[in-house]
Automatic annotation (TrEMBL):
Superkingdom of the organism of origin: Eukaryota
Organism this protein belongs to: Ananas comosus var. bracteatus
Region (Disordered), start-end ranges: 191-247
SUPFAM superfamilies: beta-beta-alpha zinc fingers (SSF57667)
Name by which UniProt lists this protein: DNA/RNA-binding protein Kin17 WH-like domain-containing protein
Amino acid sequence: MGKNEFLTPKAIANRIKAKGLQKLRWYCQMCQKQCRDENGFKCHCMSEGHQRQMQVFGQNPDRIVGGFSEEFERAFLDLMRRSHRFSRVAATVVYNEYIADRHHVHMNSTQWATLTEFVKHLGRTGQCKVEDTPKGWFITYVDRDSETLFKDRLKAKRHKADLADEERQERAIAHQIERAAAVSVAVAETPLASDPNNPTASHTDGAGSGTTGNPPAERSHFYSNPNPPRSLPNLVMRLRPQSPPPN
């Protein structure tokens, strides 16, 4: 059995030691290699493969750091969306869940030196609501998915329709109140039939027959006749029988 076989005690011990998280300062992000101690990290830095990766990094460092930063931010927000989508949680709790994966993008390879700077960045960009409390930084995920936005728009539309219906009902009630007030004022101003101050009110004649003061139809016709009868003397003379002429 060779020295570096899979089932040798040395290989098993190395896998046990490598299991779990190691020191962050002994991790090389360019080579994606985790070293167990300072001596191992020093030997890795002097290796030929690491030197080639550092030459690539030296050609465009801003682009590489920006790529690591975007990957770190995307993975962190994905974890927030899956595990703490609607809850307010401490930033350290989310970070500990994130680094549980051994192959995650380490923060020392990004543009943020500390977790506080990264949390402030999330607050400035509006991706999370951040709060600085005596117990530390707390973050709340801001859901911007298309499905959630669609539901929010539908909810806002229904709320607007409800407000329009309420406003329409209020206008109808106000209109009915105005009409009722106008009718009550008109009834109050209309005089009663027994009112003596009303010249048009009905009244009984002197005989108490209960007839109105207006003349009957024939009397009104007599008064309105445009051809009044002749004088009374002429009418009497015409009606008197004439005596025969003398012989």
